[in-house]
């Protein structure tokens, strides 16, 4: 007997190049008119109602009325949300399926984008390196004080800008910095010049540098004013009256004999002058010569 072979049919679904959608938007029918009439009838009983809330019974009734109206609204809202959820279920499923398919495309596209981004970063790094080398050669003296990063502008790396144009823009910026520096150096005699120079190389702004020196000067003036205000006022010295001299006791006058042994005539004349200057008079007589 011949062996039987069972063949299974393979269903091959044709590929689609674009999204083809067939749908019919469902319509929603509801008893809106009858419901609105019912609601208006009920609300009319409360429209413009006034409550004496100082009365506990009336206060409790007002709370019950409000709770009833809220429950009436809640019933309608609950039904509305349920219908909306059922209505959107086919749309939600449709969107989820579309996003699942587009995510397949995103994976491949992101891989290409990562490579393009890497190539762009390498191109910018190459242009940046060339501009930095050009600057260090063109401004050999300025480069150690002002790094290239301080002068760089992002637009110089754009493809539409170009390296040649970027180098010209860089040269112009360096020349402007050099001119402003010469202007600042012409005022080197001003107060706080060193601070102005530091601010200039920090900001590359001549106006900011001059303002820094001005602010420092104003600060010095405020400190000087504060110190002057804190110093005590000088006190005028009062003349001191001399202390009265103590009276010397009156001594009695006496006759005296002075005996001098071995003095020359000139020495004795000096002694006589001293005595006369003190108002003392008398007699000095040579007795004999001493060999």
Tell me what the structure shows.
The protein is 59% helix and 0% strand. It is an all-alpha fold. The chain is elongated and about 170 Å long. The mean pLDDT is 86.
Structure summary:
The protein is mainly alpha-helical. Helix content is 59%, strand content 0%. The chain is elongated, with a radius of gyration of 58 Å.
Helix amount: 55-70%
The residue ranges in which pLDDT falls below 50 over 5 or more consecutive positions are none
Overall strand count: 0
* Rounded Rg: 58 Å
Number of helices: 7
Shape: elongated
How would you state the average pLDDT, rounded? 86
| Class from secondary-structure proportions | mainly alpha
Distance between the termini: 192 Å
Strand content: under 5%
Write the element-wise H/E pattern from the N-terminal end onward.
HHHHHHH
Oligomer: single chain
Largest sheet: none
In terms of topology, how is this protein built?
Blueprint: H1 32-44, H2 56-138, H3 148-151, H4 163-185, H5 193-203, H6 206-230, H7 265-277
Give the tags.
291 residues
